[in-house]
Amino acid sequence: MDTSMLLDSWEKVGSNYDDFARIIADIDASTRVFPADTSGLTLYAVTGTDESGFKMLEYDAAQTVSRNLPKPFHLNESTIIDKGATEDFLGEIKRSRLIIKIGEAIFYTSRSLSRDLGARASVSGSGLNSPSPERNAFFMHRYVADPCKANIVMRKNKEGTLRKIFAMPSAGYRHIPQVTLLELAEYFGEEMGGIDTQLYNVNHFISQIWIDFPKQAEDVSRVYKLPDVMIPGVLLETSDTGDCALKVIPTWRRSSKHTYVRANEYKREHKGSFVLEDVKNKIKESIFSIYTKLPARLCELLSIDVPNPGEMLESIFDSIGMEALLKKTRADSLLTQLKEEIDTTANYTAYDLVMRLMDLPALFESDKWLREQVEAAAYKAPFLDFGKLSKKFAPITLTA
Questions:
Q1: Per-residue model confidence as pLDDT tens digits over 230-252
Q2: Best CA proximity match to 348, nearest among 301, 305, 311
Q3: DSSP codes, 216-235
Q4: Domain-by-domain residue ranges, the chain?
Q5: Taking the model in full, what pTM does it have?
Q6: In angstroms, rounded to a whole number, what is the distance separating the alpha carbons of residues 102 and 104?
Q7: Which 3-state string (H, E, C) describes 246-297?
């Protein structure tokens, strides 16, 4: 891993599977997870800089127990540069303002580490994100007063001269190598007749890859003869820094669109023993059967005429919880927009309305969390009971 890849801001986005595989392999080769006791940590609070380097205060168990003032410490900038640090890397030290020593090894820290530092000290709150000497002194006090076992998740540059801690989960944390994503992608390729990588996104806090199954899309078109080409796929994601579990999320998209809807996911937490074959068995049990449900249901929706599409859209919005997701004003505005798109001279089926709703996630690309929630909500729309929804107004009819 190059030093530039150790930056908190590092991220790679692309659509070439081989590039994704190389990045994931590099991350795994550069990552080490090892146990530590919080009382054995030494925290160096960076208090400022001078012409030659970083001024720091040293907090450890002996100083904390004796209630002595922290010892001043100095780290020459040239020493870090000799180990491969760039100006950007030095800038991150100034922002994180914390260096940790474990044994005789020095570790730089990610700013995202604040959450785990607080969790191991049994404290929380927005103040954790303010890396002051007082905060670090309190952490050390808690680590000594109530020590606990933790896991250190660190990455190093390819020379091994710079090491950086990105997470410090509890002792119960079970590291799942990121290469698992590659093994699962290959498994899906074998089972689904090949894969087509649409997108990957990798940073220190989450790794994701969106994969389509083009052969299955051909089979769906041949068997179900839907007006739209529906492409099944899967989103694989994981994080070894505690931001998410290993997830396998079935997806669908129209060939003419790049917006996804997501079905119920399989999730494997980072705890307990991990066996890849167990994950594959769970996929067989809970994921593969999902891929026949949507096209079969869309076929049924083609035969349901909706003479009152505006009112039906309103009922669908309510049933899939759009107001709860978007809040009332935004949901009402979006619903009004959809109603205005309705051609009053055209005939509509439940299929037409559902397909429009399945395009909605594209409106929320700038908000990752909200987009994912809308992807899940939109997937629910085809499986609603349209007979029950119509009871508020004129009945829908089944086409002969």
A1: 999 999 999 988 778 999 999 99
A2: 305
A3: HHHHHHHHH--SS-EEEEEE
A4: 31-167, 179-288, 302-398
A5: 0.90
A6: 6
A7: EEEEEEEEECCCCCCEECCCEEECCCCCCCHHHHHHHHHHHCCCHHHHHHHH
